[in-house]
Amino acid sequence: MLRLRPELRVQPCVVMEGEPPLEYACSLNTKARNLGIAAGMTRVESETFLTVSVLSRSRIEEEAAKAALLECGGAFSPRLEAGSRDRAYFCVLDIAGMEKLFGPPAALARSLLNRVKALGIGGSIAISSNFHAAVCLARSQASRMDVSIIPHGAESTALSPLPLTVLDLSEEHAETFSLWGIRTLGMLAALPEKELISRLGQEGRRLRQLALGQRPHLFRPLESALSLEERIELDTPVEQLEALLFVVNVLLEQLIVRAASRTLALASVHLALSLEGKSSHLRTVRPALPTNDRPLWLKLLQLDLEAHPPQAAILSLTLTAEPGSTSKIQLGLFSPQLPEPGRLDITLARIRAIVGEDWVGRAVLKDTQQTEGFRLEPFEVPLASTTDSRRPSRHRVALRMIRPPEAVTMTVRDKRPEAFFFRGIRYVVDDTYGPWLNSGDWWNTTVWSLQQWDLVARARDDTLLCCCLLHDLRQGSWKMVGLYD
Amino acid sequence: MTEGYVELHAASAFSFLEGASEPEKLIERAVELEMPGMALLDRNGIYGSARFHTSAKRNGISAHVGAEVSVSSFGPRLTPPAWLPHQHTPAPARLPLLCESQAGYQNLCQLITQFKMREPVKSEGSATWEDLQQYSSGLICLTGGDEGPLAAALARGGEEAGRETVERLVRTFGPSNVYVEVQRHYEREEEWRNRAASPSRSHAG
User: Which of chain A's residues have a Cβ under 8 Å away from the Cβ of B83?
Assistant: First the structure.
């Protein structure tokens, strides 16, 4: 829970489980423990300590923390197995053969611990050649945030001072051992095997093997899929964008750390806000290039949320990211220089906030002959291989489009233009080219039919005008659509 | 009604994706327009000719037999500019051929059979320059529209390339058997081709 609330890490905190008013403390940090709070205390008992922050248990946040931990472990070994015991979550890594990559086991454990600390998760690391011995030792020192290594063959010696609670004993067995005066693993290991089996059955043999650090284990590695998702439920409903961005910043940091550990970058971020009144607000931000630049992401999300603010107070938020490649795109030596991707994205987001979501991008032609037959697509950085290979073959005439087209008053003789008024000036047509016919959607109610004319016209003061006009055959109107240079 | 106009480059539904009317419907329309004759030039075959001819005979119209034949020697046919959304796969230019006589009909059938026998995949075969020279007698050659060799040559190398193509056709089919095809659908590119082809026409005779 404290992973996403860094400001609470320095305070005593208790996590409550159960339905009110029967809530009890299921987890607490060292500072709370030092104050005298113990697991199992009720909310009322916990709240008698004034400085304590009381949180409610969130399964979703726990799942996210587990995923983050697996992600982190996956960076050090491809084979890992996970489990949980007594409200603690553990992850076992098979580090056989990893020396060449990460150095000796102690160095690996140290850097793994640093990575776990960076995620804001408390825990300890134990290294052993026996699976269960490592789990028992790590459990016994979970609050110490330390690394311990059991040399090969010294498992029983290392485990002997540990209390029996690290073994997950059933109540019946715990009582039996208590009656026998057995309190540590060393004492359990010292019991004769046959006599123990005769009294406790095969379970006795298993427990003795665990205490000796000799219990075999079939490693069942997890196939973890990369899922970049972070969720947080806010303690109080948030209405201010700044306060929301503060939380988003923390979540983004987590996502970026996880993506960067796999040499990936965030390609897009989906923000899902749960609002008061059971409504939700979904936004997606996708810059031109995948990036791990947190300030850039924050700025883009801020601009997006400013343009599309949620309509009610926010109760919780989920941040999901799609990973993308971090590789840089090599542009051609002679291709035009593009602006820095981050700055381009921010500029685009600002323009989008002003002119609207659907009016920013690059024009792509539609499969139609209509004059305004194009749509807008988001900008993409062109790959070097897709450089324009069209040869500048012939001399082409430049046409300056007039958008929107301007109406003209036309005089027609023998179905051909003779003279027209454009911007208050009368032009007499010298030469005509056309008509070029265009029509479509005749199967629809939006049927259109146009005649296009290229005209060379002259004004009274001898000004020459080379232009392109459209004659709408259905409406009978004439419009100036472009001027030739 | 058509003032002596005779359609010499029609495609029926046997030219898949290029024609939609059945041969009988084409004749029906020719009767409506009081057209004295009509030619059917399907793509790489004379599939519709029998039905076309039968229907024409019944209606008292002259039916002309012909076909559009893919010829690899002319290079690829005209393709839309790369920036347009609707593209088609590259294919060789097609030469419209009309039969002038019975020998011409035999030659056209043999020409089609010869390159069809060679094709590795169905409908991907094409005739060569040598095939044309071998079976050119009795055939009248048009320069074609969008799919033809003249349009491809004009787009590739301008009027010079267009003239060379027409001269090549004239050398093969004879000066009195090659005709420059002028179509007018009121399109800019087509009009440019028509204007560019006008000088070539005088060379073709």
Answer: 365
